[in-house]
From TrEMBL:
Gene3D superfamilies in UniProt: 2.60.200.20
NCBIfam families: MJ0042_CXXC
InterPro entries attached to this UniProt entry: Cell_Proc_Reg/RNA_Proc, FHA_dom, SMAD_FHA_dom_sf, Znf/thioredoxin_put
One protein family per Pfam: FHA
PROSITE patterns named in the record: FHA_DOMAIN (PS50006)
Stated name of the protein: FHA domain-containing protein
Lineage: Bacteria, Pseudomonadati, Acidobacteriota, Holophagae, Holophagales
Domain of life: Bacteria
All copies of domain FHA, residue ranges: 127-176
Length: 208
């Protein structure tokens, strides 16, 4: 074996069989006369290896990408989707009846635009208005493909949300942002088409 002096780093050869049963041998460095001990390599090799505790695995996390804040149209669309999902859960739980609230009839009258002088009955809680897609088709080139959404809630109130349309949705002559409540006989405009919401309380005014 090679013995190294810890003081001057001098190296010299030593027969490790001369350790015998001794755990260590005391040496005197022939170069600097420093006294030091060297452990018996046979004893050191017989020691069991130290078992290191395994490191815990890293947490399973994914980096969260940076996102731009949603615009008002995205928030409005997300609100409508969340509301629709909430109503579906309540219906499935038997807390809320499916479809429109009892005791009301809802209609939409076309005042101007390609469909002027016609009336369409609203027969579902969420109505999509659009040029060529949705529940109420305007056929109006100034209306976006999916222009606005009408939401009829369980308490009989009606709310409108613009779907980030090109020309916007106006209520009382002002372009709306977010979700706005509509009252019975209130007008709103999508593109060149103007509508009037009609809400009839059939409990107070029964249909004949």
């Amino acid at each position: 074996m090679i013995v190294v002096c810890p003081a001057c780093q001098a190296r010299f050869q030593y027969d490790d069989s001369r350790f015998g049963q001794a755990r260590a041998k005391r040496f005197k460095c022939p170069k600097c006369a420093h006294l030091f001990e060297v452990a018996n390599p046979a004893t050191t090799m017989s020691l069991p290896p130290v078992q290191e505790e395994p490191l815990p695995p890293p947490p399973l996390t994914m980096p969260i990408p940076e996102q731009e804040p949603p615009n008002e149209a995205t928030l409005a669309s997300a609100f409508t989707t969340a509301r629709r999902d909430r109503d579906s859960i309540l219906v499935a739980a038997g807390i809320q009846q499916a479809g429109l609230p009892a005791g009301f009839k809802f209609s939409l009258a076309f005042l101007t635009g390609p469909q002027a002088s016609t009336v369409q009955v609203l027969d579902r809680p969420v109505i999509v208005l659009g040029r060529e897609e949705g529940d109420v088709i305007t056929q109006d080139p100034e209306t976006s493909r999916r222009h606005a959404v009408l939401e009829i809630r369980g308490d009989g109130t009606v709310w409108i949300t613009d779907q980030d349309s090109t020309n916007g949705t106006q209520v009382n002559g002002e372009r709306i942002t977010g979700t706005v409540q509509l009252l019975s006989q209130q007008e709103f405009t999508c593109g060149n088409s103007t509508f009037m919401l009609l809400i009839r309380n059939t409990n107070e005014y029964p249909l004949h």
